[in-house]
Fold this protein.
Amino acid sequence: MDSVCIKVQNLSMAYDDFVIQRNLNFTINRGDIFVIMGGSGCGKSTLLRHMIGLQRPQQGDILYNGQSLWQADSATQRRILQRAGVLFQSGGLLSSMTLAENVALPITQVLQLPTKKVSELVAYKLALVGLAGFEDYYPAELSGGMQKRAGLARAMALDPEILFCDEPSAGLDPVSSKLLDDLILNLRDSLSATIIVVTHELASIFAIANNSVFLDTETRTMIAAGPPRQLLAESTDPKVLNFLTRGQTSTANSTIRQGVANE
Amino acid sequence: MSVSENPSNQFRANLQHGVLEIDMSGDWLLDGVLPVSDALLTRIRTDKTITGIRFLTRDLGRWDSLLVTELIQILDCAAKQSVDVDKASLPVAIQGLLTLAQSVPERAGARRSYRSVPWAEAAVAGLAHIGLHAKKMLTFVGELAISMVSVLSGKQRFRHRDLWLCIQECGPSALPIVSLVSLLVGLILAFVGALELSLFGAQIYISNLVSLGMTREMGGLMTAIIMSGRTGAAYAAQLGAMHVNDEIDALKTMNLEPMSFLVIPRMFALILIMPLLCLYADLMGMVGGGLVTVSLFDVSLTEYLNRSAHAVQLKDFLVGFVKCSVFGVLIALSGCMRGMQCGRSASAVGDAATSAVVTSIVFIVIADSVMTIICNRVGI
C-alpha cells in the first residue's frame, strides 16, 4: 500500500510577482489521508488548485504516479485528472441543477449508461453521504452542511482514486464535521482511495490525517511534514507547535501535548 | 481484488436448501459490460421457497460502484420479500459501503413526487400565480412609497455618494450608446419620410416629421428601451447578487432599510437622468435627420433648422420629457423589484435580470400607449 501516488517536486506558486509558497517538496502515498495545513492565507487552497490543474505553477511540477501533470499536453492532463474528484470549499454545486443532475453530470460526461443505471448510481452516491431521497432538491434549498455532502457525492461520482477536499469542515457544526470526517475515513477504507484534505481544523486533522504538510505564511515555504501526532510530539518549531496546540505552547501544557499525542 | 481470468461479469444463482446462493464473478466496472440482473430480481420476487440469500465472491474480480448499485437492488428486493441476506458473505469493503449507504435512512417526506395536474387545476394555479405576482408588485410599490416619504421627510437617509455613483452609471456612461441609437433613428425617420414626401416634392417637410417624431415619441421611447436593457438589467443583477451574498439581510440587521438605502438612490438617479437623456436623444435624432435631408434631398441647412424650429413647440418637448420621466420610474421600479425578489442561486440572478428587462419594456410600451391616447384626446 505504501507506493507513491502524488509527488510534489520543487513547487513554487505565485500570483504574478507575489510569491505565495516556494520550494515545496513532499510525497503522498496511496491510501493516505494527507492534510495540507497552515494558517489562514498561507496558500493551502492555492496549493490544492495547483494540484488539480486549475493554476499553473511558477516553477516545479506535480507527478501523478510518476507522470508529470504540468509537462503533459492538455489531453493527458485531463486523463490524469479524470481519476480525481474534488470537493470545493462551498460545495461548488451548479445552482441551476438539482442534486441528482449535479451528481449525474460527471457520470454522463464520461460513461455511456442507461438512464436507469445512472439514477441508481446517483441514489447510491447520495445515500453514501446521507442524502437519500434528496434527488430533486436544488442546492439553494439545502443547508450548508448538506450542500457540502452533496458536493462530496458529486466528487465521488466516478469512483475517484484520489479525492481532494478543500476545507470540508469549514462552516459546519462540530457534530456534522465529525460525521464528515468519519465519512472520509470510511470512504478511504472501503474505496481504498487517496484523500487530500485542506483544513485548519485541529480536531479533524488529528482525527483523520496519517500524513501532513505544514505551510508557513512568513517564510513562504513548508516548515514541517509528517503525521500530525508525531509533529505534535516531536516538533521543535514554535510555529508548528503553536498551530497544533492552538497557541498554548507553555510548559504547563506539555502534559496536554503528550496526552493528545498518545491518544 | 485480484484481476479475474474471466472479465465478463455475471450472477449465477443457485438454490440450496431454501438459501439462494448468488455467485458473482468477473469484473464489475462501470466502463465495462453492464450486467443483466432483471431475471435474478424477478426470481427473488416470485420464488416463495427462498428464505435466505448468500453471496459467493470467490471469483469476483475488480469492482466499483456498479457492483454496489446492483447489490443495493438485490438487498432492496430481498427486504421487500423479507428474505434474510447474509451480508457477512460479502467482502469487507463492500460491507462498509453498504452500511454507509444505509446508515442514514431516507428522511420521511424528503422525496418529492410529481403528479400530473388536470388542466382546470393548472389554469387556476396559473391565475393564482399571476395574482400572487400582482400582489408582490403592489407590495413593492407600497413599500417604496412609504420609504420615499420617509426619505423625503428626512426620517431615513441614503448615502449621497451612492446617488452620485448611480447618476454617473446611468447618465454620462450611457451617452455613447444613446448618441449612436438616436442618431440612427433620426436618420431612419428621415429616409422613411423622404420616401413619400419626395413624391410630392415636399422634402422640406422631412424636418417636421423628424423633429416632431423625435421629440414627442421616438427620443423618449428609444432612450427608455436602451436604459431598460442597460441600467434596469444592471439594477436587477446588482440587487440580486447582493441577495445571494446575504448583503441585503446584513443591511436589515444594521437597521438600514434596503428599500431606502439601495432602491431610492437608484430610482432618483434614473428619474433625474432620463429626461435629460431624452432631450439629448431628441437633439441627436434631429442631427441624424438633418444629415440625410441636407446631403441627399436638396434642402439647405438653414431651411431645415428653420422648419424644425417652426414645427416643434415647447409642449412637444414637454410631452417627450414627461413620458421619459415616467419611463424612468418604470425602469427603476421593475429593475429594483426583480432584484429584490431574486432567489438565492446563480441562475436566479440571471432570471431576475431577464425578467427586469421584459417587465420594464412591457410597462414602457403600455404606459406610452396610454399617454399617447390621453394626449390625443386632450389635444396636446
User: Anything to note?
Assistant: Chain A has a mean pLDDT of 85. Strands of chain A lie at 4-15, 18-29, 33-38, 59-64, 67-68, 84-87, 162-166, 194-198, 211-215, 222-225.
